[in-house]
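hiii, so i know i said id send this last week but things got crazy w the move. better late than never?? heres the sequnce for the chain we talked about at the cafe, plus the structure i predicted for it. fair warning i was half asleep when i ran it
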Amino acid sequence: IYAAAGKWNDAVNVRKVMKDWGIKKPGCSHIQVKNVVYGFVAGDAFHPQKEEIRAELQRLCRLMEKAGYIPDTKAVLCDLEEVNKEDMLCYHSEKLAIA
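okay and structure toks below
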């Protein structure tokens, strides 16, 4: 709520309290392929096929942009530059799962 209102200091304080209390809420998506379930976390850097997944995701993002897709960076509730928000949207867990 604070982030959506642009109250970044308050948002940081709430996230700190959540971390101190051990509350975690990572973005996670799952996909089943040939009866095997694969899990992905937003910005996943540990998947064994991370390079291939990122390359495919970049290819798909370029295709989406050619088709007219414009990322809705208002959905990124972090105090970041616009280009960083677009990167965050590109590497959401559900997009990693699809790639």
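btw The chain is about 45% helix and 10% strand. thought thatd interest u
miss u guys!!
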